[in-house]
Specification:
heterodimer; A: alpha/beta; Rossmann fold; 2 domains; five-stranded mixed beta sheet; 12 helices; globular; B: alpha/beta; six-stranded parallel beta sheet; two-stranded antiparallel ribbon; 13 helices; 10% strand
Chain lengths: 326, 359
């Protein structure tokens, strides 16, 4: 079995589901012959043809609106937003239609679509190519929001997203698209869309993160271990709905929680996790919850972007602050 | 320098304001049964509309968007479509929807604050009412794309207002319908007013129909108060789209004789003289004049029909008024195919609250 990268796992999942289900189609800008600007759809056009892999006119509103229209007529569109920063014109169709079609028609119509977009910074990209908008979508009732952090999880979660009968926003952390390879059997096995994954067991502090920052967070845990601090690392994976049971279980054990995300801090997903811990786990906590996040500024152009993104050092410093409480 | 492309917009009208039928009218205009059917449907629609406004004024309905003056355009669209086609309305096309099987009580439920109005008994694949303006045009294009990819001989029809043609979504629908050569007919029901903003303030274009030219669609302007022209144009454009001949933008020129909705007061921005003149051009009057000239309609028949129509509307109104409010948990129950754990918790919270457990 070949080892593949995260982006190859994305392609593999789409190809598997397109073979299995003829109603699955892919649409977006440059997703056809070119295979997508990151090559997420590489080979799909050759394999499935122009009636399954559609290059659209260059307009995000068009992509989202067509996807909604196709979905309520029984197709399963996988729409691609070429970059995170281009996703905003799509939001009207996602919020006002995709997310509430089932509810407002009392189940008569529904919208089984996936909106895929690369997300996050750290690849020295031009302006508007490095955003982390997951909280904007997580706030919208009727959506599921998913961000994988490994090739295997990208494969299993994307399969689940495509099979889900309701709209799923699927963000792909572009910084780790090709970070490493692992064996991902092309067996069509989906992963659940309502659990997070404990990547490392620990008993002193719980580190919660997702997407590309799983990398820095695991590195921080490794360095902390060298100092005798045992950190548990949780990959949230599904941003909405959040698997709080797993987080609360972990915090019950560790008494400390540091949340790491690259999106801006205010009203980010970290705020929701901290609020839930305050509501339901206050007496398990021995230290205030810490957030290590992007700042409330647009992600800087690439000369300064690494100063914006949470670093291993910032994560360790936050953990140290929580460790000051006994 | 030489001309590389040249365009024009045709205008279609067969039945004038006085009920005179043009010599080149389509063959079906000689068929009294077709004309009587059109007239009865338009007349019923007006009875319904007037009743709905009265319900709102007496506190028995929420805000309601009247269709007064749009009857010819709306009914003709319905009669030209097949059941398997998909209709993507804005929010006042009850005339189309009644033809397709939506019940008046369902329209009232929607404006009466009950989502079950959207779970209507018309074609189950038709879209519900669309309030955000023009987004439905792209959904229709998406549906048309699905039909094309599945090789189904079906057509998607959307309706948008004159103001809606200023939206990105309208242009995007026109553009993608042209780019993919979709079985799509986009009807602009140009009633001259987008709430308080007149047609002249929306665009510098001479016609709204011509907005389809840039997308590579057929474009045509119709007298939207002429039910014969509307039916002829809708039949032609829908069948052309069905048989692979490409999509069309149809501009139906009409007039909104009512306020925008019951929450609006058009006297604030619209001259009375303009409205008075518009009443002279309204669609029922001219079709009735033709029917009377043919000796197949008169005041007695009008009175009898009104009596019957109002009785039918009353049955629908009573059914609506007797509808019990949905259980509070219904707000959760249709969010997802399977309720996620976070919503299950919130649903239980509401159940406990409603049971009186406020602790």
């Amino acid at each position: 079995m070949a080892e593949i990268t995260l982006i190859e796992a994305v392609t593999q999942a789409m190809a598997y589901e397109m073979r299995r289900d003829p109603s699955v189609i892919v649409l977006g800008e440059d997703v056809g012959v070119n295979g997508g600007v990151f090559r997420a759809t590489a080979g799909l056009h050759a394999q499935f043809g122009s009636e399954r892999v559609l290059d659209t006119p260059l307009d995000e509103t068009t992509i989202a609106g067509l996807a909604v229209g196709m979905a309520f007529q029984g197709m399963k569109p996988i729409a691609e937003s070429q970059f995170d920063g281009f996703i905003y014109p799509m939001m009207d169709h996602i919020i006002c239609h995709a997310a509430r079609m089932r509810s407002r028609t009392r189940g008569r119509l529904h919208c089984p679509m996936v909106l895929r977009a690369p997300c996050g910074g750290g690849i020295r990209a031009p302006e508007h190519h490095s955003e982390a908008p997951e909280a904007l979508f997580a706030h919208i009732p009727g959506l599921r929001v998913v961000i994988p952090s490994s090739p295997a999880r990208a494969y299993g979660l994307l399969l689940a997203a495509i099979r889900d009968p309701d709209p799923v926003i699927f963000f792909e952390p572009k910084r780790i698209y090709r970070q490493y390879k692992e064996e991902v059997p092309d067996d069509g096995e989906a992963l659940p869309l309502d659990v997070c994954f404990v990547l490392r067991d620990g008993h002193d502090v719980t580190l919660v993160t997702w997407g590309a920052h799983v990398k820095e967070t695991l590195e921080a845990a490794e360095q902390l271990a060298e100092r005798g601090v045992s950190a548990e690392v949780i990959d949230l994976a599904t941003i909405k709905p959040i698997d709080f049971d797993t987080i609360r279980e972990s915090v019950k054990k560790t008494g400390r929680c540091v949340i790491v995300h690259e999106a801006a801090r205010t009203a980010g997903i970290g705020a929701e996790i901290a609020a839930q811990l305050a509501e339901k786990s206050m007496f398990d906590l021995v230290a205030p919850v810490e957030r290590v996040t992007g700042y409330d500024v647009p992600i800087p152009l690439f000369r300064l972007e690494m100063k914006y993104l949470p670093s291993v050092e910032r994560i360790i410093a936050a953990v140290d602050r929580t460790l000051a409480y006994r | 320098m030489h001309t590389v492309a040249r365009f024009h917009i045709d205008y279609v009208r067969y039945l004038d304001e006085d009920g005179q039928l043009a010599a080149d009218a389509p063959a079906f205009a000689a068929d009294n049964a077709v004309l009587l059917d059109l007239y009865r449907r338009m007349n019923f629609l007006r009875c319904f509309d007037s009743k709905a406004v009265a319900l709102q004024r007496t506190g028995k309905l929420g805000t309601y968007a009247s269709c007064l003056g749009h009857e010819a355009a709306h009914v003709a669209i319905g009669l030209a479509m097949r059941q398997e086609d998909v209709f993507c309305p804005m929010y006042r096309e009850y005339g189309t929807q009644f033809v397709r099987g939506v019940k008046p009580r369902e329209v009232l439920m929607y404006w009466g604050g009950d989502e079950r109005g959207n779970d209507f008994s018309g074609p189950r694949h038709d879209l519900p009412w669309c309030v955000p303006i023009a987004t439905q045009c792209l959904h229709a294009a998406g549906a048309a794309l699905a039909f094309k990819l599945r090789h189904e001989p079906r057509v998607a029809v959307s309706v948008v207002g004159d103001g809606g043609t200023s939206k990105t979504d309208f242009y995007a629908a026109v553009n993608s319908a042209g780019a993919f050569r979709l079985p799509y007919v986009g009807v602009i029901v140009n009633n001259q007013w987008a709430i308080s903003v007149p047609r002249s303030a929306q665009t510098g274009a001479e016609t709204l129909a011509q907005k389809g030219i840039a997308g590579g669609l057929h474009c045509i302007q119709v007298d939207g108060n002429d039910p014969i022209a509307m039916l002829a144009v809708m039949r032609d454009t829908i069948e052309r789209a069905r048989t692979g001949g490409g999509g069309t933008v149809v501009e139906a020129v009409t007039y909104r004789l009512s306020d925008h909705t019951t929450a609006d007061d058009a006297r604030r921005y619209r001259p009375e003289e303009e409205v008075k003149q518009a009443w002279a051009r309204e669609p029922l009057k001219r079709l009735r004049a033709l029917l009377e000239a043919r000796g197949i309609w008169d005041q007695a028949r009008e009175d009898a029909f009104k009596l019957e129509a109002n009785a039918e509307v009353d049955v629908e109104v009573n059914a609506y008024l007797e509808t019990r409010t949905q259980p509070v948990t219904s707000m959760f129950d249709f969010m997802f195919a399977e309720l996620p754990h976070d919503l299950r918790e919130q649903r239980e919270e509401v159940v406990r609250w409603e049971a009186g457990h406020h602790g």
